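Support request, please re-run this one:
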Amino acid sequence: MPIGGRLLEGGARGVGRLAGATGMDRTVEVAVEEAIVRALESAAVERAVARVIDDGRLADAVESSLDQERIEATVKRAIDSEVADRIWEDILASDKAQMLVERIAEAPEVRAALASQGVGLVADLGRQISRAAGAVDDFLERIVRRILRRPQRDEPTENVGLIGRGVALAADAGIIAAGFALFTAMLSGALQLITDEKIPAWLAALLSLAGFVTIAIYFVGFWAFEGQTPGMRFTGIQLEHDGRPEIGVRRAFRRLWATVLAVIPFGLGLVPILFRDNRTGFPDRISGTVVVKRENRILAPWSRNLVPGQPG
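Re-run finished. Output below.
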């Protein structure tokens, strides 16, 4: 460095030390700060800022700095970063997040939507099975009528054939079997707590009799007061007498024992269902009922208020 520059540098350092010792540097700093504040509060600066805003130069500068592609790239990098993963983990593990999830799950609207979706899936499955069973019934009817040299049906019918009834009966059998299995498991567990011996013969016979009575009550009760069992509701069919589904206890009981009599001789009492115009067999003729197709309503009366828009 030239000697002149070193002299100036040394002089500046000396002036600085002198200013610090005498407090002049603080005085100069305050004076400069006051001057800047007064300048910013002056009308001239306000007019200059307003002119920049009105000219659109400030907006252009902001828009040019906000590059959309750069912003998207920055946001993507932030989302894909480990910091974002840790933040989400902390949020999901927090008590407030758990409270939010529980509150959403307990909301009536959410439960109604879930119930509607579940019922809709079951109803769709029932309709598909019922449609397939109806097609098989129509096919068997054509074959049997051709063998018996009877005229074919000109128009479709709402009466249900043997296959459609069998599918509904299979669904009811599954429900009854599940109920019996649950009851048997509970009874076996209770007996094991009391004694290690097996179920005595008299108790097994009594339970078998109670099972038959329960099955009879199941069918008679649903037939009499609803016109359809849960299996029939699943496949969208029901009983009718004079156009009404409530056939009464006496008529339902007659249909039950007539069904047993029709099945005993290798099911010969059910064969007329395959070729008669109204698809009736021995149980139908004895009880004065017909089995017809109806809209597939899976919902029970007490659960209709769970689904928004479902008619009561």
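The chain has two domains: 3-66, 124-306. The chain is about 70% helix and 5% strand.
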